[in-house]
Amino acid sequence: MICYSGGATGADTVFEEMCMLNDIKVIAWGFQGHKTNSKNNKILNQDELDEGFEHVKIANKTLKRNIYKLSPYVKNLLSRNWYQVLYSDAIFAVANMNDDYMTVAGGTGWAIQMAVNNKKQIYVFDQKTDLWFEYDYSIGFKTMDINIIPKLTERFAGIGSREMTDNGMLAIKKLFQT
Questions:
Q1: CB burial of residue 149 (10 Å; 0-12, 13-18, 19+)
Q2: Which domain holds residue 159?
Q3: From first to last of its 178 residues, what are the pLDDT tens digits of the chain?
Q4: How far is CA 36 from the centre of its chain?
């Protein structure tokens, strides 16, 4: 098994710690000047970051956020999200859903939208409702049965919010118990 992440504080770090406890390899995508505490950082070059930003632009057709006033650092953060999606079978995110329950808040939302655009399996634990959502390509996000915890795949992205709640951390830990 292998976990792809962005090496950020919060969910990425919790996923990385759980992977290390379970002998699962981690690749935390980063770039020159990236602030991370990950011990599994893999640096992307400028061509790779440019490729990633092309996928940010595609995701923005749905998200409709202003990407042209972002600092180069933030553009690189968003661009590295592409590599979390590209190499993964499925995306497991712990974050906050937006009020429409069709998109995910914050930086995690970019990776989720790239995953949608590329027809990946997607699971999001919403820290506000304490529920897992699964992406259904015919209707969008749907709530999963409260007694079902998604099963990690061979190559998964473990990502999410920098602001973790206790229930969010517990949701990640339970993923590794299934």
A1: middle
A2: 2-175
A3: 999 999 999 999 999 999 999 999 999 999 999 999 899 999 999 999 999 999 999 999 999 999 989 999 999 999 999 999 999 999 999 999 999 889 999 999 999 999 999 999 999 999 999 999 999 999 999 999 989 999 999 999 999 999 999 999 999 999 999 7
A4: 16
Between CA 20 and CA 29 the distance in angstroms is 16
- Number of domain units in the chain: 1
What's the CATH code of the domain at 66?
Answer: 3.40.50
Q: Minimal CA–CA distance to 26: which of 87, 79, 71, 116?
A: 87
pTM of the predicted protein model: 0.95
